From TrEMBL:
The gene is dus_2. Residues 23-143 form the DUS-like FMN-binding domain. It comes from the Bacteria. PANTHER family: FMN-LINKED OXIDOREDUCTASES SUPERFAMILY PROTEIN. It comes from Budvicia aquatica. Keywords: Flavoprotein, FMN, NADP, Oxidoreductase, RNA-binding, tRNA processing, tRNA-binding. Its cofactor is FMN. Its EC number is 1.-.-.-. This is Probable tRNA-dihydrouridine synthase. One of its GO terms (molecular function) is flavin adenine dinucleotide binding. InterPro entries: Aldolase_TIM, DUS-like_FMN-bd, DusA, tRNA_hU_synthase_CS. Pfam families: Dus.
Length: 188
């Protein structure tokens, strides 16, 4: 991933390079403990949370946005498709000190897609653009969308150029393309 602008850790001492290494959000892996461990391995890595749904953040009983300051810089990955709910969650993330917000529009899991987020959003680029616009208007930290790309999705679901065109109009801080194989029955 290539960052558009360098940023600093919460203590304002470390400038990050224009090109940066990020640890991708992975269900059942990139929890608080894993991110803390990753931070011990590298101070030059942007760490992502696991995907957290807007419903969990807005209506859940747990403190789903909790993290350690030692994890900084850290990005919140959101799952959802309601622009207003995503904007509210982005506000909460910014208030808690998250460096970025990422909209998951790439998870191929059936469980995720049944909730109308993840890879099924590839079929609704206007909605994704609206979601990113809403988040960007609510916060000053970077907001971007993640798209999981596979040849099958591009050929069958829709024109990839159409998706990128619509997303570019949203003025997203970045469009992240994690190129990995999509396996049938991905548990995420």
């Amino acid at each position: 991933m290539i960052a558009r602008e360098p940023f600093m850790t919460s203590d304002k001492t470390t400038n990050y390079p224009m090109q940066r290494f990020s640890v991708a959000p992975m269900l059942d892996w990139t929890d608080r403990h894993c991110r803390y461990f990753h931070r011990l391995l590298s101070g030059q890595t942007l760490l992502y949370t696991e995907m957290i749904t807007t419903g969990a953040i807005l209506f859940g009983k747990g403190n789903y946005l909790a993290y350690s300051q030692q994890e900084q810089p850290v990005a919140l990955q959101l799952g959802g498709s309601d622009p207003q709910a995503l904007a509210e969650c982005a506000k909460r993330a910014e208030e808690l000190g998250y460096n970025e917000v990422n909209l998951n529009a790439g998870c191929p899991s059936d469980r995720v897609q049944n909730g109308r987020f993840g890879a099924c959003l590839m079929a609704e680029p206007e909605l994704v653009a609206d979601c990113i616009k809403a988040m960007k208007s609510a916060v000053s930290i970077p907001c971007h969308g993640e798209k999981l790309v596979s040849a099958l999705m591009i050929l069958i679901a829709m024109s990839f150029c159409n998706v990128l065109s619509k997303l570019s109009r949203s003025k997203a801080a970045a469009i992240i393309l994690p190129c990995m194989p999509v396996k049938r029955g991905y548990p995420g």
